[in-house]
Every structure is written in structure tokens, then in C-alpha cells.
Design goal:
heterodimer, A: about 80 residues, mainly alpha, F1FO ATP Synthase, 3 helices, B: about 300 residues, two-stranded antiparallel sheet, two-stranded antiparallel ribbon, 4 strands
Chain lengths: ~80, ~300
């Protein structure tokens, strides 16, 4: 396997594996937020803010993987 | 696929003032600052109790930001932290959106020869002669677009970037175009600076509210558990820096790459397929600006809270 092929595989693996955890996390946050709004519709705006912040934290992990993938690919 | 090859993680120099090299993202960030200053001056030109038009819009934006802040940390603190968070929000959202304007990756300059310090003497002559013969299409995006269309009509698959790398280093003869505008948030330098500003102001406000007691959070010898927690707190301050800067950079840079790839998958007319992705990027740009400023606010609120009740 030459370096280029290894690089391509590493890029795909980095983002592919890195997206698993954040995907699960964002799904959990979204489901819990929907549940919370269903139970207490008055708190919808507060729940929305908190869930967006939580999703941002979870998504950041995927973004790290993406940055690593970009670094492997372009640098 | 010339456009694919244009993607670079680092900002590229477009011109230099003496020894000070100005990169395209730096240039665009000054533009963003100019836009913000001009719109502030325009909005604040005539005050009235019920503002109309543009100043009404600005007031709406600032008021919604302030209300959000009040919901997160309470009015007293929100009033104090508002300048920091609102500045971050406005700057980040403007620099995210300026990357979506037309002309962002279609206006090019030629590479300045000085930037390549390992160019031999002979190729430099070649470069100079080729530059003098083909003057007059400095800002012409057509070559790459035509190239792009032809390639995709031949139904070639996307060539990997390595194509360009694997070529022998005769890039001097090949014209290299550098985009004039680049979204400032797609440059790690700028996002790191905003993150540094945010984290430093978090520390400063913590000291201002709690005095030297603020450092009790980090260095605490009262018992072993508190000592270990203090180390964790120090690590978390550093990781704030990393996550702030990489989150914004990653999102915006990934958005740019996505738009370029989608646009180069299709030919001229079918580039309409890019439209939904532009809406996605508008959404992402807003969310990232919102998240950056809200996280700063929440961390500010946490840092200024006394732990011994």
C-alpha cells in the first residue's frame, strides 16, 4: 500500500469513526429535549437553548475528527 | 478539477506591505470590521425612542441577544458581559456570512513570486515572461470554470488532490490563482484569537468578581480530591480554548469545502443544486455564532459564581 492509499483510508476512517459517537450523542440530546418539551411546553425556549448548547458540545467532537481528516488529506 | 486543488487549510498571502504579508482571510476580516463599524455608525446616527428602518433592525438584534443573556445568567451579569458576547456574536456571524457571498472563491489574484523562496533563478524568468504575455485576465474566474465544465462533461471522476502533488515541481509555469476573499472563520488563526479573547476575559471577570479566591478553583490543597479537581479545572480551561477555536474553524471550513465540492460535481446550469447547501450553511453560520457567544456567556457566568456558599 502506498502512502496515498493509506492517506485516503485514514481520512475516511478518521471522519467515519469520529462521527459515530457524536451521532449517538446528538440523537440522545434531541430525544430528551423533545421529551422535555412534551412534558412541559412552557419551558420550550429554555430547553431549546440548553439542547442547542449540548448539541454544540457533542458536535464539536465530530468537528475535531473532521479537522483531523482535513489535515490528513490536505496537509 | 482545478477548484478542488485550490482548497487549502491555511490562508494564502495575496499581497504584502513591506515585510508584512497580508493573507486573504486577514484582508476579509478587516472588511468584516469595516462593515461592523459602518453599520454601527449608520444605526447610531440619529437616536430616537422608536427607531425605524436599519437602526430598528440593529436594536432588534441587540435586544434579542440581551434577552437571551438575561435568560442564561440573569440581568445583572448579562448587562456586564453583554459587550463581550455581543461583539463575539456579531463578528463571528458577519465573518461566517461573508464567506457565503458570491465572489468569495471566484475572484482570484496570481500568486506573488516572492512568497516562494525556493524558486530557482531560471523558472522565475519563465514566470515573468508568462505573466507579461497573459496580462489582462487577472480577475478572470472563467478558465477554472470552463476547465471544470469540460472535465465533468467528459464524465471524469473527481481527481484526487494528490494529482497536483504528484506532478513534478514545475508549478511556476502553471498559473496558480489565490482567492482574494476567504471567510475569516475558515482560518484557524482568527478563531484561535477569538477563543483566546473569550477565555482571557472569562479569567479576568472571574478575578474581578471573586478576587484572589478565584484561583481556589485551580490550586487547592485543602484535601486530595480538591487538588485533583483543581488540575482538572486547569485542563478544562485549556480545552475550552481548543474546542472554541476548532469548533468554529471546523464548521466553517467544512462548509466551504462542501460548497466547493458540490458546485464542482455539477456543470453550469445544474449548479442550482448548491442552493440547499447554501441554506444549510446560513443555518450553520448562525448556530456557530450563537453557540460561540452563548458558551462564552455561560462560562463567564460559571467563572463569576462563588463556590463556597
Amino acid at each position: 500500500m502506498d502512502t496515498e492509499a493509506a492517506k485516503l483510508i485514514a481520512t475516511a476512517l478518521a471522519i467515519g469513526l469520529g462521527a459515530i459517537g457524536p451521532g449517538i450523542g446528538i440523537g440522545l440530546i434531541g430525544s430528551k429535549a423533545a421529551e422535555a418539551v412534551g412534558r412541559n411546553p412552557e419551558a420550550a425556549s429554555k430547553v431549546q437553548t440548553i439542547s442547542i448548547l449540548g448539541i454544540a458540545f457533542a458536535e464539536a467532537v465530530a468537528i475535531y475528527a473532521l479537522v483531523i481528516a482535513f489535515i490528513i488529506k490536505f496537509a | 478539477m482545478q477548484l478542488i486543488a485550490e482548497i487549502s487549510i491555511m490562508p494564502e498571502p495575496i499581497f504584502s506591505l513591506g515585510s508584512f504579508v497580508v493573507t486573504n482571510s486577514m484582508f476579509t476580516s478587516f472588511l468584516v470590521a469595516l462593515i461592523l463599524i459602518v453599520s454601527t455608525v449608520l444605526a447610531a446616527r440619529k437616536f430616537s425612542l422608536i427607531p425605524k428602518g436599519f437602526s430598528g433592525f440593529i436594536e432588534f438584534v441587540l435586544e434579542s441577544l440581551f434577552d437571551l443573556g438575561c435568560g442564561a445568567v440573569g440581568e445583572k451579569k448579562a448587562r456586564k458581559f453583554f459587550p463581550i458576547t455581543a461583539t463575539i456574536f456579531l463578528f463571528v456571524i458577519t465573518s461566517n456570512y461573508i464567506g457565503l457571498l458570491p465572489g468569495n472563491s471566484t475572484l482570484f489574484v496570481r500568486e506573488i513570486p516572492q512568497s516562494e523562496d525556493k524558486v530557482a533563478v531560471a523558472p522565475q524568468v519563465v514566470y515573468a515572461s508568462s505573466a507579461s504575455t497573459s496580462e489582462g485576465h487577472e480577475l478572470n474566474p472563467m478558465p477554472s470554470a470552463k476547465d471544470n465544465a469540460e472535465k465533468s462533461l467528459e464524465s471524469e471522476s473527481i481527481k484526487p488532490v494528490s494529482d497536483k502533488v504528484s506532478e513534478p515541481k514545475t508549478s511556476v509555469e502553471k498559473e496558480k490563482f489565490i482567492p482574494i476573499f476567504r471567510s475569516p472563520s475558515a482560518d484557524l488563526n482568527l478563531t484561535l484569537v477569538i477563543a483566546l479573547f473569550a477565555v482571557c476575559s472569562i479569567q479576568l471577570w472571574g478575578i474581578r468578581f471573586l478576587g484572589l479566591g478565584y484561583f481556589k478553583k485551580f490550586i487547592n490543597f485543602s484535601n486530595p480530591i480538591n487538588f485533583l479537581v483543581g488540575i482538572l479545572e486547569i485542563v478544562s480551561e485549556i480545552s475550552k480554548l481548543i474546542s472554541f477555536s476548532f469548533r468554529l474553524f471546523g464548521n466553517v471550513f467544512a462548509g466551504e469545502v462542501l460548497l466547493i465540492v458540490i458546485a464542482s460535481l455539477t456543470t453550469f446550469i445544474f449548479s442550482v443544486g448548491t442552493l440547499p447547501f447554501i441554506f444549510l450553511e446560513l443555518f450553520v453560520g448562525f448556530i456557530q455564532a450563537f453557540v460561540f457567544s452563548m458558551l462564552t456567556l455561560v462560562f463567564l457566568g460559571m467563572a463569576t459564581e462563588s463556590h463556597d456558599h
